[in-house]
Design goal:
By secondary structure, the chain is an alpha/beta fold. It has 9 helices and 7 strands; from the N terminus they run βαβαβαβαβαβαβααα. Strand 6, helix 6 and strand 7 form a beta-alpha-beta unit. It comes from Dyadobacter luteus. Belongs to the short-chain dehydrogenases/reductases (SDR) family.
């Protein structure tokens, strides 16, 4: 897929992976629109990269999604929708069998899964009108094996992974030209993972892996250790599970 000249909308684009993606897409000659909930982060991103268009919006809010769609379409629409935004409620030693977890689960699913479907449905008509267009859904290695302390995040990404396959095949059946990519990153060095001491990939390398996959039209783009983990988990699922759930996570649940 060619990036130059494309208009790309990145959710969660005010910092971390989204902001780095904006930078690298701009460097390749794309027009980039970022959106996010934090106006200060959006303002800082705009100051850093003046060519950006920044629109405040919460992907987990239906009214915000509608407003975002209207603003983006009024300015010419997009060629690529990059669903990058996601939330991870801080792990808790309460585990998953309690009422508080249900509240956190509803929030995570709304943003990580329902919000993606909502935006895809809103923008699909515009995307289908383009000569070359794409949707990028970001899942996780946690969609292949769950984390005990991040159970709903894992579940939301698993739901998104299955939805992504279904959407891709649905669009093929109806003869749509919209490409559907699944990005599967490993643990990435962002604010979300700042308190983790595990091995992480940099946002720069993560985005480079994404762009390389897009340019090669790889439907499933595994970056860094996500490639190795996929092989291990398929051949030795118990080992895959133990990699994502080391003894320290068991100790957290027991504490």
């Amino acid at each position: 897929m060619n990036i130059k000249g494309k208009t790309i909308l990145i959710t969660g684009g005010g910092s971390g992976i989204g902001l780095e993606a904006a930078k690298q897409f701009l460097d390749l000659g794309a027009r980039v629109i970022i959106t996010g909930r934090n106006q200060q982060k959006l303002d800082a991103a705009k100051k850093l990269y003046p060519k950006l268009t920044a629109i405040k919006s919460d992907v987990g809010n239906a009214a915000d999604a509608e407003s975002l769609f209207e603003q983006v379409n009024a300015s010419g629409g997009i060629d690529i929708l990059y669903n990058n935004a996601a939330v991870l409620v801080a792990p808790s030693n309460l585990g998953i069998a309690n009422d508080k977890h249900a509240e956190r689960a509803a929030y995570e699913m709304e943003v990580n899964y329902v919000g993606v479907i909502r935006l895809n449905n809103l923008f699909l008509g515009t995307l289908q009108s383009r000569k070359e267009a794409a949707i990028i859904n970001t899942t996780s290695i946690l969609s292949e094996a769950p984390s005990l302390i991040e159970a709903t995040y894992s579940s939301s990404k698993t739901a998104l992974a299955f939805y992504t396959v279904s959407l891709r095949e649905h669009l093929k059946i109806i003869g749509s030209n919209v490409k559907v990519f699944e990005l599967i990153p490993p643990l990435v060095a962002t604010e979300m993972t700042a308190d983790r001491n595990d091995k992480k990939i940099s946002v720069e390398d993560m985005v480079k892996g994404l762009i390389n996959g897009l340019q090669k039209d790889q439907q499933t783009i595994r970056v860094g250790d996500a490639k190795i983990f996929n092989v291990i988990n398929r051949l030795f699922p118990k080992i895959g599970f133990s990699i994502l759930n080391p003894k320290k996570s068991h100790e957290l649940l027991r504490s």
